[in-house]
Specification:
With about 450 residues, this protein is of the alpha/beta class. The chain is built from 16 helices and 16 strands. The longest helix has 20 residues. The protein is globular. It starts with 16 loop residues before the first helix and ends with a strand.
Length: about 450
């Protein structure tokens, strides 16, 4: 059961199908543009969407809003330093700001960044520096149905090849994303992290953790990796941070707050350069674009998130929804993680070709049928088209992500999600595809416009 009780509730919108049809047409079929009061169950993201605890709210009430040297910063820094072991802690307003500052300082145009999988904003911040982002997911990640427990690992043989023979492009950094969000929310094993760190040291390349979901990764390690089943999630997390040269983190995930993030580093010179850019673009070193109350709430959230009781319930909640979806005959990426479930839209809607975006089609029909907002991770997100609109690259898999906000929805809400998927699965041929009408050059899925294409 949930290791908490509910003290405050918020009504959720209940629209008619006709109202949802009008809303989706108004935003030209991009669910990012829907108003929150047009969404019944919002599974678009787990970033900044969790519920605060009473202790976090209490901590926020004593936030020190001094421009420089606030007490809140020192409480925040002490908590982050104890968890990560890093000597230099720089606050930022969220993870993508931390990425921008680090990459702007660390990368030179033409460099290469290697990762188990870059997520969208990470890749964008690499490419905006004129650099190349290369993903090296492990071979096991290609099998969506296998129950391999660590499909978020990096391909160590491929990594060694590229570090030994980088060609004309310098490999400036290896970024390990834990858990691997772009790879289906799958965890990275401690064995894989250790071997990656050893390769990086051998070739003189820093290893940085994208630690947005470090606690969930640690929990799955304690469940599935030999040698760690008698360890606490906190102990596993501390060991993971110790293996790396630093980290970037969006605290909107495993900090369980609505805004915030940080950079952690051991390299004093790199930290100094990052700090100069932080001051110029985010705010002074002791607030980094955040209010003091935010810093205090992050400090509490980082402690709460490694509580085994909290993590056990989060895992059980995700497993409950996963089983309900399987029971209605819809396939997901296996095994289910904690922060999201990834539905195999390509398998559910085989009549829709990749250039008509089956993942986005399923996203739209989940909203039309049940008021559920989710995100596509398929050819709309990863594909490419030429100037005439002809597809030149499709995604390896057509998925949608059902991201699970922390401490927000109950099992009856998840029953509604599964029932809506069941309704679609009974008549999948009724779902039609979409075409792109307008799209920006980067991160197009956030702001593009689409139109339906009849079957």
């Amino acid at each position: 059961m949930e290791p908490y009780r509910i003290k405050v509730v918020e009504p959720i919108p209940l629209l008619t199908r006709e109202q949802r049809e009008a809303a989706l047409a108004r935003v030209q079929y991009n669910l990012f543009d829907l108003r929150a009061d047009e969404v019944t169950i919002d599974l678009l993201s787990d970033s900044g969407t969790g519920a605060l605890s009473a202790e976090q709210l209490a901590a926020g009430s004593i936030g020190d809003e001094s421009y420089a040297g606030s007490r809140s910063f020192y409480r925040f820094r002490e908590t982050v330093a104890e968890l990560t072991g890093y000597a230099h802690i720089l606050p930022a307003h969220q993870g993508r700001a931390a990425e921008r500052i680090l990459f702007s300082t660390l990368l030179e145009p033409g460099d290469t960044v290697v990762s188990n999988t870059h997520f969208d904003t990470t890749r964008a911040n690499v490419e905006l520096r004129g650099c190349t982002a290369i993903d090296l997911p492990c071979p096991e990640a290609k099998n969506l149905d296998s129950r391999e427990p660590f499909k978020g690992n990096i391909d160590l043989e491929a990594l060694e090849r590229i570090l030994a023979n980088p060609g004309d492009s310098r490999v400036a950094v290896v970024v390990m994303t834990i858990t691997n969000n772009g790879g289906g929310g799958q965890p990275v094993s401690m064995r894989n992290l250790k071997q990656t760190a050893e390769l990086c040291r051998r070739f003189g390349v820093p290893m940085i953790l994208d630690a947005a979901r470090f606690a969930e990764n640690a929990w799955l390690v304690t469940r599935n990796e030999e040698g760690y089943r008698d360890r606490t999630p906190r102990q596993v997390a501390e060991e993971a941070f110790a293996l790396a040269d630093g980290c970037v983190m969006s605290a909107k995930k495993d900090g369980i707050v609505h805004i915030g993030g940080f950079i952690g580093l051991n390299d004093a010179e790199l930290a100094k350069r990052c700090n100069q850019l932080l001051i110029a673009t985010e705010g002074f070193s002791t607030y980094g674009g955040l209010a003091g109350r935010d810093l205090d709430m992050i400090a509490v959230g980082l402690k709460e998130v490694t509580d085994p009781a909290y993590l056990a319930e989060r895992a059980d909640s995700a497993a409950y929804l996963a089983q309900r979806i399987r029971d209605v005959g819809v396939d997901i990426l296996e095994p289910p993680g904690l922060h999201a479930l990834y539905v195999n839209a390509g398998r559910l809607l085989p009549h829709i070709p990749p250039h008509r975006f089956p993942g986005h089609s399923l996203v739209c029909h989940l909203y039309l049928n049940g008021g559920i907002r989710s995100a596509e991770l398929g050819s709309l997100y990863l594909g490419e088209e030429d100037e005439d609109g002809n597809q030149t690259k499709s995604a390896p898999f057509e998925l949608i992500r059902l991201a699970l906000p922390r401490r927000v929805y109950t099992r009856s809400h998840y029953d509604h999600v599964a029932a809506t998927l069941e309704q679609i699965a009974k008549n999948p041929e009724s779902v039609h595809g979409y075409r792109i009408v307008e799209a920006p050059a980067i991160l197009r899925h956030f702001s593009l416009k689409l139109a339906p294409v009849p079957n």
